[in-house]
Amino acid sequence: MTDIQTAAQPLNELLNVAHDRPFSLLFANYSYLVGVAGAIFVIWALRFLITRRLSLSEQFLALPLAVSLFIPGMVNVLLELHQPGRILHGYLYGWDYLHTAFIKWAIFLLPSLLALIWWMMMQSVRDGLRQYWSSVPAPLRPVLELVTLGSRHYDLLHQTVGIILLCLGIVLGLFATAYSGLFLMSEHGIPFWNTPLVPLMFSLTAFGAAAGCYVALTPLLRLGTDLQPGEGCEHRWVMLAVALLGGLLWIAWPWWLGHFGTVADQRALALLHGPYSGSIMNQWILPGILLPLVLLLLAGSLRWARVLAGLGLLYAAYTFRVIVVIGGQALQRSGTGYLAYSPEHAVIVDSILNLCFLLGWVGLLLWLLPMASATDKNPEPGEPS
Amino acid sequence: MKRRIFLQALAASGLGVGVIGYADTFARALPWVKSGATVAHPIYGMSDEPEWLLDKATGKYRRNPRYILRHTGDLQCHSECGLRVKIDAGTGRIARIIGNPYHANTRDDFLAYDMPLNETARLPGTVCARGNTGLQTVYDPYRITVPLKRSGPRGSNKWQPIPWEQLIREVVEGGKLFADIDDPMGKDVEVKGLRTVHAAQDQLIDPKAPELGMKSNRLVIQGGRIKSSRRAFQTRFAHAFGTINEYEHTNVCEITHHIATEMVYPHKHVVKPDIRKSKYVMFWGTSPGDANFPMQTIGKYVAEARTKGAKHVVIDPVLHRGGVVGDYAEWVPLKPGTDGALAMGMIRWIIDNGRHNSGYLSRPGHQAAQAAGELSHTDASHLVIVEPDHEEEGTYLSAHLAGLGDDEEAHVVIAAGTRKPALAEQASEGSLDFAGQVNGLRVKTAFRLLKESAHKHSLEEYASICGVHAERIAALASEFTSHGRKAACEFYRGIVKHPNGFYNGQAVHMLNVLIGNLNWAGGITGGGGSFNWKKGRYDLSTDIPKPKGIHINREGARYEDSSEYQAKVARGENPYPAKRPWFPSTFNIYSELLPSIVEGYPYHADILIWHMATPFYSVPGQHNDELLDKVKDPRVIPLIIASDIVIGDTSMYADYLIPDTTFMERWVQIGMHEATMTKGTTVRWPVIEPLTKTTADGRHFSYETFLIDIAEALKLPGFGDNAIPDKDGRLWPLHSREDFYLKATANVAFDGDPVTPADPEDIDTCDLESVRKRFDKSLKPEEWGSTLMVLSRGGRFEPYENVWHGDRVGHPYNHRINLYAAEVAETRNAITGERFPGVARWRTPATIKGTPLDQLDPAAQWPFTILTYKGSLQTHSRLSSNTILREIQPENWLEMNQDDGTRLGLEDGDWAWIETAHGKRKGRVKLRQGVRPGVITFSVGYGHWGYVASHIDIGGRRLEADKIRSAGIHLNPIMRRDPDVWQMSLIDPVGGSAVFYETRARITPADKAEATA
Prior knowledge:
The structure holds two protein chains of two kinds. In chain A, 70% of the residues lie in helices and 1% in strands.
């Protein structure tokens, strides 16, 4: 029996003793929240570049949602790090030899994206800020000026500088959707991760989840406001594309592993086809590929179908990350089998706290941001208002 | 609810919960300026700096001032490898462990002893994975650092920290020590303290059996891996106290190997092949790279030999890591426990085909051998009395009985030339194959006895017994005898942990003897020996009289000499069987201690001390409810004290726990293993400050500190002031362990030609000045320089050039080799009365009463035999804390043959039940071709219940169980016990080994519900 045939044999399940594995559910949380935030921003920016409209609820609520996902997402990094202070130092003072590690670029780029989204968010509500400024108590005004980056005084969003920054933001947003996958891909010792399909799939699923947010969450956030409902048909095609491409890539991945993979890749394949096959079908393929495809192709014009498809994509984008993050570390390099995984108590608690933190940010931003409809500049003739 | 209020509530609650929940994380993140200092190195970030710094101007290395380097000895297994320990000079914590390049275990061409340390920067030694991870044993988060006293019933794992002074006071004075806790069985027990038991050293245990000795023998010390000078320290205490009962673990390890070796090579417990120069090495019951002495070194030697064209053969039912198959390697998967049959088959073929070295074997004495150019001589031509019922039957024919004078010790041969009896030491050659009469007595030569023993079965019968074809047996014998003296047989636990273990071992030794390979390069070596730590500058073997009496496990004594036996004979009764076996030819019968104490045969114990001892984990069949219930009952054993580094599988059943030091924090002086062929003594010493707390006068808690404080409380001789005489007769105190072990190190340094005093730069590299200052008064000023030199090298080692002298080994063994074990032949089985044979033979594995094991547990019901092995990634119980090793192999399996698994419907990774006569366990199966059909094997070291594998309560604080330590399966608890002796493992009645490889079992697949349970 050759090594490859041996490797492809069913794997032993080993007891989970690796509770100090480098990446836990927290990495999946981080990848998911930051990636989806980045994708929400990219969709928002593209839509604005095309329509130049801010007044619709999707456009108005998307950036607070992106910020609310981004910040808790980054907290997961602090939770995973044994020396969180070091990463903050890196953010503020830079790092020697930026070319030697991928993570060092992300240390600048991801916070830059967050700052950009924050600023865009304030720019998008500048009319409201101006409107409510007189009602803000005088002692709070300096703080508010700082937090809003003085957005009530200028409008760069509709200027050339703003357009350039938007384009830069789109690049950073795309980076955010793929970064955690790129990070995993650079781990040469882990065949499950060391493939360009990981960042591709992470990016793709982030866009699927972002579309799901636009379709399923913004109507919820709009409740109780006088914001105009946005039309969701375009997200039908985003979701459909994600499901189709995701399905194709998912078929291509094992095929590639099977035909060109090393012994280590074969073990990854044995994991996908063996012990993980049930989870993959139930947690990823069904909600993330089959359900959206069926709903969108058969009843895509119906709102409930789009909402259900969006929820499926939202769910599957997370479970897909969990499968990849945990699966990569489960494989034993010695070939002795794979490690079964049950999250530690602390990780579950941290994940629940993360959700609370996320909801807190949503509440805070939607409470404090002025809900006055933004002014749409230079609407194109014939555009709905 | 209005949207605004809802959002306010959501924000307040969400952010509130988040901020509070993450407070610790944010707090850790905030001091970013401090913890975010610029990385130390642009490439390596904050990784440890190297221990050496290169001075580019001079091209020389010097110590990195951030670290100190110290050399010591490992104890992650018994290989005792030399270690180089990198220690953070600021924190005192170990940063890294690698090999000591001056040590033969860890560097094949080990470095010259006088080479300065800084010249070794690019010449490191290597240690195995276990050696590298040793710091995880030291920094186990569950280390005990203060004394603990149980606060619930024995085994409840409820403990209360107590002051050291309270520990000493209570165990010395005794009393109702557990009256104030919830312990129905123990609260009213009046415990005899050590003072009371010691004071009874002038009272006989049983006036009708005075040979049992005094009541102070009722202190029993059951040690684990306590060796050499540490063992001597323990013995010193025991003898001063007045008890004969102090032991180490050897009968669960490999005692029969030692006894079989000693009977063939007197005064030696181990002989090894000179692997590197051998052309053909047979590994019996072991394989290179698995547990052996030393493990990694033998593996490296075999690899080196194979590159030179040597072949090695692994004879074992299981193909382990080192047992590769292919060119220059062969695997012979014989039936378990039948090594003796295979060896005797080979012996028969060798003798029948004249392939034995008759010229060598016929030299009866040292002078005759020297004259013939031989490097050793044997008793092959010596005559043995075989006259039935003669009172000297089974002994060597003496000159006196042969009518050759009055000497009752001198042996007799039939001179080859005259064909007449002659004194062995005077004859130049003796007849090998002789049977006849001398002075009216029927006699045979030892060689003749061996030949007749080999002829008891045909080659085909041997083949049938061991499951190896007769043609292959012949081929193995032929190949073994085709390389002159450059062939050797090596054996270890696999062949001796059987009821017939002694004879299996003796038979394999005979293969070496028949080709006369001792002392020849590529043959067998007795090793290089060691430097004397006991005497020289100080006399550490102070002659405290050894207490008299019979060991509680009846080792080293003949039942026939006991009052019990004689009383039965006087009453006209059949004196057999005794209640439990006696072991006249062996020692350290560790497995018999607990059952003997509980049964009170030959007497009970008042106090039991465990040190590094874990009989419940290690002894086959001993972790069972019936015995546990007895041990848990303070009325049976009133006081149990354990010394351990953590709360272990056995120490959890103690009344008091003494915090002990790990191998990085303690001392020992121990000789080199024979396989390295090097004279040397490894010195293990506290290279870091022990993690245990200290006594009021600053001594760290440890086993030795405990023994010293007890001894001083009882005013025992050999401790306290005026305890150790130096060479001039001046008496030195023994108040701390350094008072003893530093003197032992000085003895090593000054044995023969003293070693050169340590160089100041080496002293600086190892920070030895601090040692000198701290323990200045333990040695004379003029001794420190050489003693520090020994510490700087982690021991004393002779030059590599001494390993060989031409075609001979550098350190020859010069005693007579015995084909005939006269000492054994003089003894009997105390259960059956059967006389033990003195010559190698095949014996069917049986119970102590002689019931063949195949009848006891028929194959039709029990088709599998359980074997155990020590892999290179675990072995000892204490390694369960080494999570790095557990990352490589998180759990163990029931390893079985692929075809067996398929027949049972099992696939790799399936759960299955393994059942024996004493219980069943559930484990995952691993199917592979490297296991003989009918065999199940598992790696020891997994499946703990102690060592924090289960919850512990200390001072009311609950420590959660650590899954890593309970992972896997452990089958020792369900291994076969002897049905005729209460709670006794199956045992080798001659060599004394507890039997690990003869438990019959059956396998049944676990159903789905059971598998997930």
